[in-house]
Amino acid sequence: MTAERAGWGNHGSPLPNDQDATGRSFGPEELEAVAAVLASGTLTSTKGEVVKSLQSAFAALMGVGHALACSSGTSAVQAAVQVVDPEPGDEIITSPITDMGAIAPILYQTAIPVFADVDPSTGNVTAESVAARLSPRTKAVIVTHLFGNPVDTEAVRRVTDAAGVTMIEDCAQAFLASSHGRLAGTVGHIGTFSLQQGKHITTGEGGLVITDDDAAARRILLWINKAWPYGEPSPDHEFLALNARMSELQGAVALAQLGRLRETVEQRISMSERLSKSLDGLPGLITPAPPADSVHAFWRYPILFDPSTVEGGPNGVAADLKDLGIGSAPRYIQKPAFRCAVFTEQRTFGSSRFPFTHASPEALDYSADRYPGTFAFLDHVLVLPWNERLEEAHIDRLADAISGSVMKRAGLQP
Q1: How far apart are CA 414 and CA 392, in angstroms?
Q2: Half-sphere exposure of residue 384, counting CA atoms within 13 Å on the CB side?
Q3: Is the pTM here over 0.90, yes or no?
């Protein structure tokens, strides 16, 4: 089907965008929930009941003992990291292909991010790449389910258990993703989620942390509340912590959306299957697919292009899509996290360079030859925007545009 036959013309209407109402599913449930909170006059979660209800509902959905709400996905990661209470210079293994919001908390907790290489076909860390970065100073491992494609968490958990370190799952992009029948976030000791604007559930900003460990849950709850144990006898500020609370207004929006989460994920999966079916068989590209016995939650839709077949690779296809009014992101991120200034210049607290001053030389070795999978993935990936408001006509438009670009750049007749 050509773009013209689909009724889009050369440019067509913009695709649904998760940065505004075209790509976000808000309705009367959210309005009613927010209005009820405003009518109550109680907007703080320390006195209200809505955030508590969200926590209970999310814990039940995930099948875990505890869910704690906080102010952002970044706060969720920091809440998880502070549970292991690292000493300055201790190491936490993570992915070099992730948002800085999942890495900065490690430095704020005085630990050193140590980057594991990734699988060049998925952008995810593996049990083998994690094992290769373990050292006597390793305190935890953070696995990121990139784009909603689940890591083989059971394999990574075997590695972390053998090493005696904590496994944290970063599920910011992976609501209801699963591997071997277990939901993302439930295999590790702690799972973290983001409710930022573009996520499967959004409150603009917000986060959730889950765990089955009672002691970890108490520590997380304390950290979110300036280490003040509300409701306990003889309370005191027990350790250094911030205010990372979610408001009742955010909780109301999240709770309303939680009831639609399965539908949201199913729609994303359905449309991804339609696009993959349309693109399968084209030369020089690989569409995303979860590992066997896994569910991909499709926060985004990544395609790998072979520049030796498709001239210009992902950058060339992205330029063609832009000419048709379709946005996309070649490389996803322009460079691995360890090439950002916070690492290359060690810009942290004043001119101290802390906590890098406590790091081992091996932890700061960012040589390119240690990351072949990372650079291969970034060089070949093109990431398409994705949301639950995409419908069949949008997918057919995408398929037509990508197919036309690939055939042209592969030197084939359409």
Answers
A1: 22
A2: 29
A3: yes
